[in-house]
């Protein structure tokens, strides 16, 4: 009996140990925001909530009448007058991300003015906020004619440069669809500068009308847009106009909004593009 019991115990000790349950993968902590840069889309709401700067909604009237242009305005914290930067939104309309970029521009010392260019065009006379989905916003923006967009930008810019805290100088900065509009708007008199984030260049006849210096910032993996750089650069050089394009390797379209994408390439592009943007605007908008 003792021999049998010993054999049973020996067999029990020789059984392979049960496999331990696999450890759960460690949770990835969200990346801390670099506050020297604009927020990404996922960071925008939190950035707006904690901003110390004064932001407000203003309805800017159009000379032609009709629905006013609903506009988000953020003021810098400074004792002297500031230049105005008019933001031209993406195909996705005036989003929280666009308002977050406006807040960052105000942090850099500019009066940031972000109009909703589809104001009055949505359901019940609303704008971006009235659309049921992002796709519906895209439809509204695609319905804007160049003439309507320019008329609305004119009204907003003329209103903004007359603010008591403005120094009278103005620039535009646009993203995606708005980048193309910013480049096109560089034809307007009195504009000190235009910044283009991954927007297509105007056709040759329109390039001849460009007056303002243009800074272009593009993702290297965005051939639809980057294919329009070289023709514009050649034509504007021939005309003696200022066009300074920069292409960031590995970055995609919309890199400033989608900073977490493309394995770090979009964030790297943002870190290089944003300081160039601020320096360019400061130089052109200084009193």
Distance separating the two termini: 103 Å
Mean pLDDT: 91
Work out the helicity level.
Answer: 25-40%
How much is the radius of gyration in Å? Answer: 26 Å
Q: Could you list some keywords that capture this structure?
A:
287 residues, alpha/beta, Rossmann fold, 8-stranded mixed sheet, 10 helices, 37% helix, disordered N terminus
Write a brief structural summary.
The protein is an alpha/beta fold and 287 residues long. Helices cover 37% and strands 18% of the residues.
Give an overview of the whole structure.
- With 287 residues, this protein is of the alpha/beta class.
- It is 37% helix and 18% strand.
- It has a single domain (38-285), classed as Alpha/Beta hydrolase fold, catalytic domain (Rossmann fold), CATH 3.40.50.
- The chain has helices at residues 2-14, 44-50, 96-107, 134-142, 146-161, 177-185, 204-207, 223-226, 229-239, 265-285; strands at residues 55-60, 69-74, 82-88, 111-115, 166-175, 193-197, 214-219, 243-248.
- Helix 2 packs across helix 3.
């Amino acid at each position: 009996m003792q021999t049998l019991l010993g054999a049973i115990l020996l067999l029990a000790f020789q059984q392979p140990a049960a496999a331990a349950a696999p450890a759960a993968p460690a949770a990835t902590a969200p990346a801390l925001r670099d506050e020297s840069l604009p927020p990404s889309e996922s960071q925008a709401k939190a950035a707006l909530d904690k901003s110390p700067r004064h932001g407000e909604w203003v309805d800017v009237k159009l000379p032609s009448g009709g629905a006013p242009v609903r506009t988000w305005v953020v003021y810098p914290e400074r004792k002297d007058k500031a230049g105005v930067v008019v933001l031209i939104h993406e195909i996705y309309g005036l989003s929280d991300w666009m308002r977050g970029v406006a807040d960052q521009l105000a942090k850099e010392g500019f009066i940031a003015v972000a109009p909703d260019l589809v104001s009055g065009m949505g359901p019940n006379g609303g704008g971006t906020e009235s659309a049921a989905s992002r796709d519906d916003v895209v439809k509204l923006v695609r319905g804007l004619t160049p003439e309507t967009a320019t008329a609305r930008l004119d009204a907003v810019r003329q209103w903004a440069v007359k603010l008591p805290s403005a120094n009278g100088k103005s620039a535009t900065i646009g993203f995606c669809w708005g980048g193309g509009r910013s480049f096109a708007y560089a034809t307007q008199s009195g504009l000190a500068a235009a910044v283009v984030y991954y927007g297509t260049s105007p056709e040759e006849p329109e390039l001849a009308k460009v007056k303002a210096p243009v800074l272009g910032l593009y993702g290297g993996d965005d051939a639809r847009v980057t294919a329009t750089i070289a023709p514009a650069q050649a034509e504007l050089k021939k005309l003696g106009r200022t066009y300074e394009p920069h292409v960031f390797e590995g970055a995609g379209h919309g890199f400033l909004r989608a900073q977490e994408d493309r394995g770090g390439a979009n964030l790297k592009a943002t870190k290089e593009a944003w300081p160039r943007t601020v320096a360019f605007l400061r130089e052109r908008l200084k009193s």
